[in-house]
Amino acid sequence: MVDDKKRKKKKRGGGKKKMTAEQVLAFKAVNEWVCLGQQQQGSSFLVDDFGVQKSLGRGGEKVVFELHSHSKFSDGFLSPTKLVERAHGNGVKVLALTDHDTMSGIPEAVEAARRFGMKIIPGVEISTIFSPKNPDAEEPVHILAYYGSCGPKRFEEVDKLLENIREGRYLRAKDMILKLNKLKLPLKWEHVARIAGKGVAPGRLHVARAMVEAGHVENLKQAFSRYLYDGGPAYSTGSEPLAEEAVKLIRETGGISVLAHPWALKNPATIVKHLKEAGLHGMEVYRSDGRLAVYSDLADAYGLLKLGGSDYHGRGGNSESELGSVNLPVLTLRDFLNVARPIWFDAVRDILESYAEEPSDSNLAIITRFGRTRILKGNSPLSCGKDLIDRCLSLWLTNEERQNDLFEAIKLKLSHVSISQGGTNVPIETQ
Ligand SMILES: [Zn+2]
Ligand SMILES: [Zn+2]
């Protein structure tokens, strides 16, 4: 933590300086990906001591990434639309929506982001359990997954895993309520379900809110510190998968796996070691109060990406970090994209190839899962399968990535397929 303090002091002293040559290159690479080559920017950058780009050219723009946020689709308070609006207001250019165990909020976020020229990284925060031989060392672990714009390949497998966890959450919430009732703190299931909202798997936070509303505790913090903490008197586990399993699945489906908030773990070093063996890509080490040296060192020891985000829920109150408040240095963002982009590229290729092999409505639905309106309507209607591929590539990949013979072959295969306004395939012969 010592170096973080030093950094803060320096920062307070002001003093913006020119980027180093490496930072300038990194900034260009990051910006190219953010804008997908649609905007050419000036070449004069300012940077603060942390290597975070503060302004760009004369426009005074920033590239702020927010890599950890929650919406109403899990235990956040804002709809994806409101979340995106707020992120935009805070200068966020790239937002990862990482709801707990669901990706259902992504389409709405993508749609909202379109209005602000923002980019959404389809994400999810997966509830898992780390279960070593010693049962005392068992603990819950949250794994963040970041996918490319087209989402996971083999989406069904990811969806199945998430569905199982969500189902487990219903049972778990019911079990927590049972325990509270036994502790003479009466709480009704309907109350918790109403707070969670329709179709939302209830979590600990929803139980805590119901406890506050029922007057059993003064605030959320008290609900957690007295009853709901890990291993607490009203705590219950659901049917979470093993952390290693989740990491492997994320890897196999074209995602980047990142260990969330390691500072909340009892045995971060052991867990990082095991998850690295399973294929973990990175871990959170940045918070709004800076980079945490202990975890940064741990990430270095295992060659992991160092990332972080605000974990914004929209709860309000002073203790919550604001959306976009975690400063990620430009070199960090570059490293992240260097690892992620080839993996995301493979997923795009995989999904488009499957569609070219079999241009069915279900394969089309996979392509348009997260950006239906954007892809199908766009600026002009699509006339054939080739247009669809061009549209997707322009939304998902940089100019350079698009220049690939693979995609030419896919387009050729799809020249005989036409797509209706409603998003179904129509063979051209029958028109
Ligand atoms: Zn978490
Ligand atoms: Zn979170």
From TrEMBL:
Give residue ranges for domain Polymerase/histidinol phosphatase N-terminal: 65-130
GO MF entries? 5'-3' DNA exonuclease activity; 5'-3' RNA exonuclease activity
Q: What domain of life?
A: Eukaryota
Q: Which Pfam families match?
A: PHP (PF02811)
Q: Which residues form a coiled coil?
A: none
Q: Which InterPro entries match?
A: PHP_dom, PHP_domain, Pol/His_phosphatase_N, Pol/histidinol_Pase-like
* SUPFAM superfamilies registered for this protein in UniProt: PHP domain-like
User: Can you say what this protein is called?
Assistant: Polymerase/histidinol phosphatase N-terminal domain-containing protein
Q: What is the lineage of its organism?
A: Eukaryota, Viridiplantae, Streptophyta, Embryophyta, Tracheophyta
